Amino acid sequence: MATKAYQSISMMPLSFLTPQLYLRNVPRRGIKSISKPRPNRFNRSQNIPLLESTTAAALERRRFTTPLRTGALGTKKGMTAMYDPDGRRFPCTVVQMDRVQVVAHKTRERNGYFAVQVGSGWKHPSNVTRPLLGHFAEHKVSPKRHLVEFKVKDEGGLLGIGEIIGASWFQEGQYVDARANSRGMGFAGGMKRHGFSGQPASHGTSLTHRAMGSAGQSQGGGSRVYPGKKMAGRMGGHQVTTQNVKVVKVDGDKGLVVLHGSIPGPDGCLVKLSDAIKKPWPNVPTHPLTAQPAADAVSDTV
Questions:
Q1: At 106, which helix (H) or strand (E)?
Q2: Is 239 helix (H, G, I), strand (E, B) or coil?
Q3: Residue 21 has pLDDT above 60, yes or no
């Protein structure tokens, strides 16, 4: 039986007895944030992208901090001083480049990333192992005393095998990152190694003025010494990077690069120079201006 329509408004039932109708287009009052929601590092929502853990994704994240071209190797010769146009004296470090040459390549298809293997110096073949001697012979390069790998952004930074990298690879005024092994100081105490203030000089301290003190808790911390605790031990002898070092002068004929200030390592140590990653990339060519073929380079060094 069909329902009868209501004759008047007074005959309609009360509003709380009728089913509620939810309209989608009815505006709701509230406070709206003008900033975008911050991403959640936990993958519990449908709005955040999937986690990228592949090798290609890792290379994509590092593409902005990977240099466009390879670095170079040098030997720290010592420190000296120079004067600026205003007459102020400033310290500088002299680095000499000795027969720096491209030895091999690393490609993404074969190795998963792009890199250039650079060698410097010279080593007698009788003092080189046979596997490494075959590596040099395969690329028609004379045996090198030092071999270092520099990562590059893409295949555009891969130099030709056998090309010589001279001091003119860097330009005056640009900034570089200098890496070298720091001077080893042997076994050192906590005050020298970490800058501890030591124990009191008086008030009952006996023969422990330079002692480290307590190394951990007895019961609350698990009765153990936490990993990474600053204690006495071997100091120095590890790689240290000095960033944003300015190139003051370049001598292409003598293979000298003069850097502003000091860099890690003692005199005679190996120094790795590359374009500074915290400065804009220098407007320099990605290939040497005077490229030398591999056959000519081998004949000159032998």
A1: strand 101-106
A2: strand
A3: no
Reference 60, options 105, 108, 110; nearest CA is 108
Cβ atoms of 209 and 198 closer than 8 Å? yes
Mean pLDDT to the nearest integer, 196-223 = 86
Query: What mean pLDDT value characterizes the chain?
Result: 84
Q: Can you read off the two tokens belonging to residue 112?
A: 């998963």
Which residues, 6 or more positions from 91, have their beta carbon under 8 angstroms from its beta carbon? 79, 80, 81, 260, 261, 262
107-155 confidence digits (pLDDT tens): 999 998 999 999 999 999 999 999 999 999 999 999 999 999 999 998 9
Residues 282/272, Cβ–Cβ less than 8 Å = no
How far apart CA 269 and CA 77 sit, in angstroms, is 8
pLDDT score at 302:
43
Residue 232 confidence (pLDDT): 94
Neighbouring residues of 295: CB distance < 8 A, sequence distance ≥ 6: 140, 162
Burial group, residue 78, by CB count within 10 angstroms (0-12, 13-18, 19+): exposed
* Structural contact between residues 163 and 260, judged by C-beta atoms closer than 8 angstroms: no
Could you tell me if residue 165 is left (phi over 0), alpha (psi between -120 and 50 degrees) or otherwise beta?
beta
Backbone phi, psi, residue 8, to 5°: -145, 170
Extract the runs of DSSP E, i.e. beta strands, from 158-279: 175-181, 186-188, 233-235, 239-251, 256-260, 270-275
pLDDT at 29 over 70: no
CB 247 within 8 A of CB 175: yes
CA angle, 188 as apex, 183 and 193 as ends, to 5°? Answer: 75
In the predicted model, is pLDDT for residue 54 greater than 60? yes
How far apart CA 168 and CA 287 sit, in angstroms, is 11
d(CA 66, CA 171): 19
- Provide the pLDDT for residue 2: 57
